């Protein structure tokens, strides 16, 4: 028990690692750091508050899920005036899909901040999305709706939400990228290498360079998948310029 | 077409009936009155904006539903620290149930404000809840999250959300009320009379008096139902004092 308290206390320090990493992820300084500590506490820690209530990120997931839904709803409402209720509902569920939330959480490396008694290799994929939701819930409690909205814009809407893509108008990001490079007279190179590491299944990594500058990296179970993933990331990096092609 | 424009233009007047009734429902002065006009325009009016997009309350329902979910989620999160994710989800779905939203819309008489080509008697029950959701969506667009939250507190949470009741701990409001009156040494009377009016089914109205003062009224298809409904309303009127009994 003393051990757990030590871990938690170290989190509250304003110059500690947790605080620094968190500030980087958030893009602003957290105020109620205790709420964020809860957002990264796994149930296996078995922590209770003074009244015997469980302290872990699961309740914050509920809150974050609601905030994500609202922010995305208002964005879609304003962004797509031609979309009816059914369209808006469908688009939102694509954006907040389990798969997408997992990707968001993984990209931010949220799992690095988790306090858990379970080795991180034993978590399923969903922990990434769950932590992302919990983090959004914590932002709401710490700073209110406006900050929550800003964070979701920065981390979800700007980098990932492209209506054309969601409507399935883009079939292959690799072909889109190649076409764009040719049009803009840019050179490109996919540098693929085997990178299985400690995984049981064979994995490949790819570095995508445009004009000899590495633009995006990705890792997947096939060369093709890794290339597509890197192309998608490059697409979002160049979103405004490239989306004129669609 | 001209006729429709006239109807809509008359709504924008700051001294018109629509504006006055709306201000009373909202508890504050609406700014972007056009948004509220959309919130009370039925699809049967077949109105389009300059770009050909349908103008009616259906998209606002989507937005309002999301805002309701968020505000209720954050209220439950803070109010019930012992409730886990499953509990919070279940409680929220009770509060924003179709039946409950219909009741909220009906109590505010929102249907009186609707512009529609369908006679109001031909609408199903759900129009009340749909209008309530659309109104919440309009408040969000007009004044943002904080006002939306205030409105939901005033119209949903304070009068209707009692955790004990939602958990099913109250079985009969009538017995609760009687017990409370006896304890507090107050007299009570249920004054029931037939009040079918133009309805096809027989209806009863009831006036519930406590210490000879009418506290609540209700109308339903049986005497028992009407009494229970009136008792429930009285309960919420006296919520703080009576809930100590549970």
UniProtKB/TrEMBL annotation, chains A, B:
Localization (cell): Cytoplasm
Record-linked InterPro entries: dsRBD_dom, RNase_III, RNase_III_dom, RNase_III_sf
Enzyme Commission number(s) of this protein: 3.1.26.3
Domain DRBM: 172-240
Pfam families membership: dsrm, Ribonucleas_3_3
Protein's GO biological process: mRNA processing; regulation of gene expression; rRNA processing; tRNA processing
Cofactor(s) named in the record: Mg(2+)
Superkingdom: Bacteria
Record: active site: 65, 133
Keywords: Cytoplasm, Endonuclease, Hydrolase, Magnesium, Metal-binding, mRNA processing, Nuclease, RNA-binding, rRNA processing, rRNA-binding, tRNA processing
Catalytic activity field: Endonucleolytic cleavage to 5'-phosphomonoester
Listed SMART domains: DSRM, RIBOc
CDD domains: RIBOc (cd00593)
Annotated RNase III domain residues: 19-144
Functional note: Digests double-stranded RNA. Involved in the processing of primary rRNA transcript to yield the immediate precursors to the large and small rRNAs (23S and 16S). Processes some mRNAs, and tRNAs when they are encoded in the rRNA operon. Processes pre-crRNA and tracrRNA of type II CRISPR loci if present in the organism.
Self-association state and partner proteins as the record states: Homodimer.
HAMAP family given in the database record: RNase_III (MF_00104)
The protein, known as: Ribonuclease 3
